[in-house]
Structures are given as C-alpha cells and as structure tokens.
Design brief:
Blueprint (H helix, E strand, L loop, with lengths): L3 H8 L4 E4 L2 H9 L4 E4 L9 H12 L5 H14 L2 E8 H4 L7 E4 L11 H13 L6 H9 L4 E4 L18 E7 L5 E5 L15 H25 L2 E2 H10 L9 H15 L6 H13 L5 H12 L11 E7 L2 E6 L7 E4 L4 E4 L12 E2 L3 H4 L14 H4 L3 H11 L3 E10 L5 E7 L1 H7 L5 E6 L7 E7 L3 H15 L1
Parallel strand pairs: 1-2, 4-5
Antiparallel strand pairs: 3-6, 3-8, 6-7, 9-10, 9-13, 10-11, 12-17, 14-15, 16-17
Helix pairs in contact: 3-17, 6-7, 8-10, 8-11, 10-11, 16-17
Amino acid sequence: MNFEPVSKLFLGNLSVVNLGLESFARNLSGAGLPVVQVDWKPPAGGDSKVLAALDAIALSSKVDIDKANDAAVSRVLAAKPTVVGIGLARDVVPGMRKNLILHAGPPVTWQMMCGPMRGAVMGGLLYEGLAKDAGEAARLAASGEIDFEPCHHHASVGPMAGVITSGMPVWILENKAFGNRAFCTLNEGLGKVLRYGAYSEEVLVRLRWMRDELAPVLAGALGLHGPMDMKTIIAQILQMGDDGHNRNRAGTSIIIRELAPYIVLLDEPRERLSKALAFMNANDHFFLNLSMPSAKCSLDPAMGIEGSSMIVTMARNGTEFGIRVSGLGERWFTGPAGMVEGLYLPGFSAADAARDIGDSVITETAGIGGFAMAAAPAIVKFVGGSPQDSLDITRRMYEICITENDAYQIPALNFRGTPTGIDVRKVVETGILPAINTGIAHKEPGIGMVGAGLVKPPENVFFDAIVAFAQRYV
C-alpha cells in the first residue's frame, strides 16, 4: 500500500476548515496555520429526544407533510388583506367586553407580566375610566376582576405590550380571499407611548384624542376612499426600502397619499383635519398597525391544516415567546423571551431593557419584517448591524421556509420573493432561528421606548413543537 500521497500532504502548506469545537481552530491557529471556522452544530443541538422525533417524522407515512405544507402556505399566498374600516373594539372585536384586556403574546397572568406590560395594562384601565390613578389601576389588575387574554385569541394583534381595551379604536381588515377578519389599534408613534408601558397624562390625552378625533377622521376618509388593498401596498413598500415591521416610512407615506385627498373633503374643522394629517406625517410607524393585521388575517386561514408543520403564529408577551403550528391547532409552545441586542436612545443601555415583547413578529411569520430586511438596508441605522447583514439575514431565512412570495419581491435580491412559510422541521434541522427585528421597551412600567434591535427566539419552543408533532402524526 502506497502512503506517499498522505505523507506529501503534511509536507506542504496546510489550510484547514474546522467544523465544530472552536478550540481545535484556536490550537491550529496558534501553530501558525490558516483556519476557517465553520459555524456548525448538530440538528436540535444534539438533543436525542428531538432527533428521534425528527427521524420518526421523516420516516412516517401517516401523513404527507409536504402536501399539507403546500396547502397551508398556498392560503397565505392567496390572501387578500384589505382595510375595510375603523371601529371601537367593543363593537367589532370578537368576544370583547368591558372587563377584558387583550395583550400581546401567549397567555400571561398579571403576576407574571413584565414591567411594560403592566404599565400598558394600568394605562388601559386609566383610559377606560376604571381606575383613578396608577395605584388603583394596579390593585384592580391584581384583583381578579379584570380578565387578560391574548390578542391572537380574538383575531387581533398589538405591537409591543399590545394592549387593547373595549373603548379603543381599531383598524378592521378583511381577507377578501377567505372572509376572515383581523384587528389592530392605531399606532401612537414612538417614545413615551402606551404600547411601551407608559401611562402618564400625556399618553392618555393622546389616546383619547385618537379615539375622539383621529379615528373619526380616518374612518370618514376611508369611507370616501373605499377599501384599501394592503397586499398591493405591502408589495410597493418593499420596493421602496421598507420591511413592514421596523421601517415604515414608505408605507406611512402611501397611506397618507391614499387618504389625504378624502380627508380634506370631510365636513370637519380644518384644524382637526390638519392635526390628523400632521400626526400621521410625524409618525413613521403609523403603517405598522396596518401591516400587522394584514399578516394576521393572511395567516389565520392556514391554521388547523392536518399534518402541516408550518408556523402560523409567533408572539411575545415580555415574559415568554410562543409559537403555534398549523397542524397542532391552537396549542402554544413557549419559552423565555430573549433580550434584544441593538441600539439605545441617549441615556439608556442594555441594563434598562425589558425582554422581547409584542405581536409584531406576526410580520416575520408572514414573510416580511426581519425576513425582508434585504429590502430595507437602511433599517440597520435603527436596529444595528450593516447593510450586508440585512442581505445575509434574508438569505438565511430561505433555508427554513417552504416557499417564496412572488407578490412581495426584493429588488436587492434580483426581485426574488420574500421567504414565506416557516417550517418548524427546517428550523430544528438547520439550527437557523427566525430573524426578528423589534423595538426595546424599558423594563420598568411607565417609562416607554429605549431602543430597537434584533432578537433570537428560544430554541426550545421549536424543539417542543417537533416532539408534539411527532406524538400526533407518527
């Protein structure tokens, strides 16, 4: 046997590619050898129970998962989210009542709520006139007289704390392809606002103005304009540098452009109309509360497809991150909400930050937001990173998705459709977690927004979902 080729290998210049433990790479580098470290880890982090579930799913003939996923994602692609009106939550949100407060994320009790969630709840009680001051609001929230339920359980979504009370105005969106509806409050802007847990008098005054003046102006203009096709608008904003989650300048501009000609026709005092237009113009995130329910009503018809491993909900309440999988119905799989890594407003740091919070990750679930960051390279000025990072993040998301949405195209990727339909199997197999960009709330109630950045969901929610999927379908 001739070993000469092997011996010659060690006489020449070596270049090493190392997979796995970085200590090997460090040792070789210390010896003067060029080393490329590959960021690799075994599927499911090597968890034997999860690996067994993955293998069992792959070998099972009980259900055709790929066919089920095609059916689920086809409903998302066929969706026609449309703005059809504005109404008070008590009149339009299913199951809404006076003593019910809806919140972002999976279910959570008052005792387990984070600071900004508590602050938003207290503000909601003050807004509704159910409490006279913050102390009374906190006592009422803890008394058991107020019910807390996820927005998602009521066909709704809310950014950050996501609090919706019965007297708040909400956008009404209808999926014209399937007839289902979704609801979301109007966006307050950035900084010291209810959704970030602030509840001072200025916050309440703004909310009441939005109910009493802004919402009627918008409803009147929308009545003259007619329904707004959000699918077409989202397709446009991705061509204009938005991602539909944390960069919304183009989207807000389009909504103003659509409604302004009708706002000026309303029989209202000019000052009221001017104030409404000025508010929208000064609030770049006004569009977020339209993109979120657009995503929600696009995804809801994909819930409950037998055998589908597509994720139809991701949400956070500031304490836990949760997902729901189409073929597993309404069941939540939860894990600890993560800490956001990003940029902070002057005077704040990571020490001030609350954990990840909000329903706005519904945008990523539907294939925009962080999944479409390549369309919005300027977003890195808000959440951190570089323009190249935004391209890399979107490219990675294709590896965990079922298909691409040809309606939502990304110019920087040669007009490739956004990655759409997260397959929980692929998340576990590849170890690639869904990319999420988000705002950062102060950890204490009453303070508000302190920054924005990127966050990773907890791995265990995907592992737990795979095990449950195997238990049901194998």
